[in-house]
């Protein structure tokens, strides 16, 4: 039984940060500009807190500017929109991130649409999603962009392969399917999207040469869903209770142990896609600053 190769997001993200150093220095030397990100977080969602904390640490380590605006759970939609309008016009910030999910009383689409496309470093604004669909992206959503970078770094060329994406959100699944199918280098795959309405899911996933799991279902995908030598990208980050001091462990949407020796390669959880999401957020923020001087 062949050993399954581990696709480390940490290794790839370190390469991204190293490549960004000269670009950040050029912005400083030529324009006295420091890429800046404003992260808005509402309430106290534990997963959001971890992401924002990791993001803040990375920006600080790279001598970039980052501020976190914390608003209480009961913040009204208009109050949030007012905050975004202020950030839209603040030249200190080249990128704006509103951490999802938002409380139920706030319309997520209205909030995303309020961020000007030039500062939408998450790539969620309809204009930016439209540009991505047309093959002329401004900002690519961070998680799908990070996955594509893992494939390229690992010399995994999707061209001619069947890629199956589990999940259809505008954050991961849908942009992932677009990126994998575009007619360009390290893309050009035949792509299928599966979701909660898909019948006979195993029949489709067993055809996958590349399987991207973004379901939010802890360890749902096991060896019964895959064929031999499949490349698995596990996007899931799920908290499962255990007996540790923290009281939980992080697992993906894929049962990691079950697919060992069957899958050719897999991203681990943690340490796979997660580090790349933050790396691509940094890169998108640098790109936003660079666009002002292009």
General description of the model:
With 294 residues, the protein is α/β, with parallel strands linked by helices. Helices cover 39% and strands 16% of the residues. The protein folds into 2 domains: 31-126, Rossmann fold (3-Layer(aba) Sandwich), CATH 3.40.50.10860; 141-274, Rossmann fold, CATH 3.40.50. The strands form 3 sheets. It has a 6-stranded parallel sheet. The chain is globular and about 50 Å long. The model has no long low-confidence stretch (mean pLDDT 95).
| Helix/strand order | EHEHEHEHHHEHEHEEEEHEH
Q: Number of helical runs?
A: 10
Uncertain spans, ≥5 residues at pLDDT below 50?
none
Count of discrete structural domains = 2
Give the helix/strand layout.
Blueprint: E1 5-6, H1 9-31, E2 36-42, H2 46-61, E3 65-71, H3 77-88, E4 95-98, H4 108-114, H5 126-133, H6 142-153, E5 162-166, H7 173-181, E6 190-194, H8 201-205, E7 210-213, E8 231-234, E9 238-241, E10 248-251, H9 256-259, E11 265-266, H10 273-291
Parallel strand pairs: 1-11, 2-3, 2-4, 5-6, 5-7, 7-8, 8-11
Antiparallel strand pairs: 9-10
Main traits of this protein?
3-stranded parallel sheet; 2 domains; alpha/beta; 16% strand; 294 residues
């Amino acid at each position: 039984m062949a050993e399954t190769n581990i696709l480390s997001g940490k290794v790839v993200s370190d390469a991204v940060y190293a490549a960004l150093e000269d670009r950040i220095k050029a912005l400083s030397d030529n324009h006295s500009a420091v890429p800046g990100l404003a992260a808005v977080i509402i309430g106290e969602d534990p997963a959001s807190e971890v992401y924002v904390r990791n993001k803040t640490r990375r920006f600080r380590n790279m001598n970039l500017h980052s501020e976190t605006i914390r608003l209480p759970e009961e913040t009204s939609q208009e109050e949030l929109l007012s905050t975004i309008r202020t950030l839209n016009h603040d030249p200190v910030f080249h990128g704006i991130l509103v951490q999802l999910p938002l409380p139920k009383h706030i319309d997520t689409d209205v909030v995303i649409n309020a961020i000007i496309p030039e500062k939408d470093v998450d790539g969620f604004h309809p204009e930016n999603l439209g540009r991505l669909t047309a093959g002329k992206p401004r900002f690519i959503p961070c998680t799908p962009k990070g996955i594509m970078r893992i494939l390229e770094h690992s010399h995994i060329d999707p061209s001619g392969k069947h890629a199956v994406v589990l999940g259809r959100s505008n954050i991961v699944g849908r942009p992932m399917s677009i990126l994998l199918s575009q007619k360009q280098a390290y893309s050009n795959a035949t792509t299928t999207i599966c979701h909660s309405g898909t019948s006979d899911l195993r029949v489709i996933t067993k055809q996958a040469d590349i399987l991207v799991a973004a379901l939010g279902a802890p360890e749902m995908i096991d060896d019964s869903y895959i064929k031999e030598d499949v490349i698995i990208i596990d996007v899931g980050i799920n908290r499962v209770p255990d007996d540790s001091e923290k009281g939980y462990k992080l697992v993906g949407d894929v049962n990691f142990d079950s697919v060992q020796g069957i899958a050719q390669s897999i991203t681990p959880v943690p340490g796979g896609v997660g580090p790349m999401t933050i790396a691509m957020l940094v890169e998108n923020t640098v790109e936003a600053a660079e666009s002002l001087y292009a």
